[in-house]
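Intended use. Records like the one below are meant for learning the mapping from a protein sequence to its folded structure. Do not use them to infer anything beyond what is encoded.
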Amino acid sequence: MALLRDWGRTLIRRTGRPVAQVQKDSDDPDVWRVRVAAEAADWETVRAVLDARPDGADRTDMLWAVGETAGVERWIAEVLEAEPDAPLPRLVAGFRYVNWGWEARTGARAQHVSREQFQVFHERLRQAEAWLYEVAEREPGWISPWYALQVSGRGLQVGQDVARRRFEATVRRAPHHLRAHQQQLQQICEKWGGSHEQMHAFAHESAFGAPGGTPLGQLVAIGHIEQWLDLDEGADTAYIGRPEVLASLHRAADHSYRHPDFVRRGPWLQVLNTFAMAFALAGDGAAARECFEATGGKVTEFPWYYLNGSDPAAAYEKLRASAGR
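Structure written out for the chain above:
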């Protein structure tokens, strides 16, 4: 470990920048703790960590970490049988089955997903929704089941009206819930049956309708990245380099991470990574460097997996170098 630290310090001295490393979890140690417990099939620790955190955006992050963990679908079945009236096991099972469903579908375009994959995908999502609705009925104040229903609903193609109602149910309970807004933005993207115009309008309304310093400014940057991804080579660079696009990125940055009320906890690192990517693609090296420096080489999988799904850190490194940092 000492050799690794020394090597890292040497590399920083030679390149002037820290080594890029993917950060699987947020800076909340309980997210890491609950993920480790889920991997070990340690339900008592999973429950203790989740019970200690009031239902909200931070608890959503912890539930998502459990839901991403392979094998939870096996041991949670025994918990459900042992605790038939408890909402928390159903919530955990719902989050896992949402993730497990998307794992079956994969991230491929629809035309490259087999009929069998879609069948498994939909079966798992329908089971997830049954549990999540049970939890929502038993605990009407909880945010997390409605957030997970946003994700499952997109996969089940529930339609824009139902999806909007699920989003509204989440934000009634947590108005500035970043993950919920991210899911709704995806829901109205052109690739999911919406349009670029809807997406940008929603991003702008959400970002600037919130107080300064919230992470919702990230939505503006995501919207521009999404449209950039949707365009052919050449047209993509021309789009994101437009003066009006760059101006909107700066306005969103001023209202979010540059605002004095912005707090570096929760999703702050993902916000900075997203703006780093957007500014670098737009050719604003100074603004991109500001973000890259603030991240300190800590890479979030989103949005970098858009550029390199197998190695997000490599995508980060490439654009960081292009920005002159």
